[in-house]
Amino acid sequence: MFDRIAGVYDAMNSVMTAGLHHRWRERAADLARVGPGTRALDVATGTGDLAIALKRRGGEVVGSDFSAGMLERARRKDAFVRWEQANALALPYEDDSFDAATVGFGARNFSDLGQGLSEMARVVRPGGRVVVLEITTPTKPPLSTFFSLWFDRVVPLLGRLTGEDQAYSYLPSSVRRFPGPRDLAAVMAGTGLRDVRWILTAGGIIALHSGTVI
Prior knowledge:
With 214 residues, this protein is α/β, with parallel strands linked by helices. The protein has a single domain, classed as Vaccinia Virus protein VP39 (Rossmann fold, 3-Layer(aba) Sandwich), CATH 3.40.50.150. It has helices at residues 2-17, 21-32, 49-55, 68-77, 113-122, 143-162, 165-177, 181-190, and strands at residues 39-43, 60-65, 82-85, 98-104, 124-135, 193-201, 206-213. A 7-stranded mixed sheet has the order 3-2-1-4-5-7-6, with helices on both faces. Strand 2, helix 4 (68-77) and strand 3 form a beta-alpha-beta unit. It is globular, with a radius of gyration of 16 Å.
């Protein structure tokens, strides 16, 4: 499915978020606290926008994804990021290999959220950062009403227009299944991360979580 939608992925992201997804990725990159001389991993990198945001802060960046189609698009954007095909639930990297690990709009696709986050924490050195950028479901109207209308009706319609109705019907269902901010923080803490905190933005539709590896 992800290989199939690689060609429309960036355009759909921009349409669905009015282009704001780039700003949210920049905030996630800031929370990773990387710079020259550091090494960062972006898991489930997709077409690579968060990995590229990390690269702009200096240091070495690896962008990994299980979708060859997504990685092909990422390689066209930036030749200085190392793009590697990998399974987020069994990352092919040694313990303590990175100063930070991030995932942007990919954690809800992990078939085992706890395992995926544990793998991210495993490959980050003590004192390094794990950052999760994800869509979350607002609970208070009128935003909750708008969110439901947009994700349950408009997004699947946009998907049908691109010929990928299955993928963009999957999106709202994956958001609904994903833990809310407090529950996600608990899962992150359960992997051994400390000082887990989150920021809500875009009126409560977007959550940025961060924690420090012990």
